[in-house]
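Example 5.3 — Probable chitinase 2
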Amino acid sequence: MGNHLGFVTSGAFLIIFAAALIALQIVNGLQATTRPQHDKVVVCYVSSWAIYRPGNGRFGFDELQAEHCTHLVYAFAGLNASTSSIRSIDPWADLEEGGAKGGYKRMTELRNKHPGLKVTIAIGGWNEGSANYSELAASPQRRQTFVNSAVDFVRKYNFDGLDLDWEFPTQRGGAPHDKENFVLLAKDLSTAFRSRGLLLTAALGAGIATINAAYDVARLSEYLDYIHVMAYDYHGAWNMKVLSNAPLGRAADQLSVEDSIQHLLKLGAPRRKLVLGLPTYGRTFVLTSLLSGANDSPIGAEAMSTGFQGPYTRENGFMGYNEICSELVKEKNGWRTGWDKASGTAWAVKGDKAITFDNPNSMMMKADYAAEMKLAGVMVWSIDTDDFLGTCANINAEKLDPLLGLDYPLMRSINFALSRAPSSHDSNDNLVPDDVEPPIPDSGLQASLSSVILIISLVSSLC
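Solution (predicted structure tokens):
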């Protein structure tokens, strides 16, 4: 009897061990899903300069988990004004010659691991300004030269298309005719791109004043596959008051996500082309005086015109979510946190420092809003300031499924919210261009799960 029990015990142990291995395979399979499990667009901008950030802020392609995204956008290329052509801004980071980092190739090769992933390159950005783009768009000859160079560039480096990030037409050195000429530039590019199966998108400012001055929304929509709405930076230290970076609900000053989306729809933007931008960062403030009450919210408090920096991004008035949550997760660090219901924004305050930012809760609210409005999906600026190392797992554990991972809490929250939304294919108005059907559940994983259940049954009968 003793030998028989020993045999049973040993056998049960081996069976349990085998079940554990299979369960581990299931977890790894879930974590390695190659694209989001829904039919919405999730556009992830990637800051190419993130490789230069110090310490745990350094973000390279080894840290980029593209399964959180349907589209990746490499930021940024620039404009060679003298030749009217697109150019690499940082050849050492972008190209391969001379032992350089080869960023273009490394990002486009991610499609090999993630079927259906689209990888495009953005031209422009804040630092490029507006004047050179204004002059380019004003000349039919220069526009055609640029179109030819853009086609050659995206083909040479194996991108799926181009994202226009002109910040902003008619502003920052631009001219009144930019509004019309931006349409003509988009039209010329679209003619060349669509015949070659290339994507053309644009990132648009979200303030109503900027929209009205810079964009002929209805006509632009004819030529763009997607419109990325930069629904953030509504407020910052420049207001000299603590306010939300990206408030969700309608606001008295009309600076909110809902105000922007409703205005774009009113101007003729198709829902199926609108992609709602979400910030993976917050805005920082230095208060002019300490809050009077121990439980007071900093929202609305007067502040200096310059905010403080984070240790990785090192930009006044700006902190990535990874920087913010790293501060909050430290024990006895003195930060007090709260939630502003009116704007749907998280906040933190310590002494004379305050931060307003998006967290997993606000990201899910905005993703829900995009789904409810039947938009094409969402985009993030930028994936490299999410908590990609999972250092803040302690404060996000209740919101995330540990089987799927505790890193990238913002991206996981976004995709969770979108995965529970009704399929957009239920409405013809929301079919998106170049859409890829969401994958069906992995039959191998289902078979593995069935095996685990069978093994557990066997163990029960032996014991």
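Remark. The chain has 14 helices and 14 strands.
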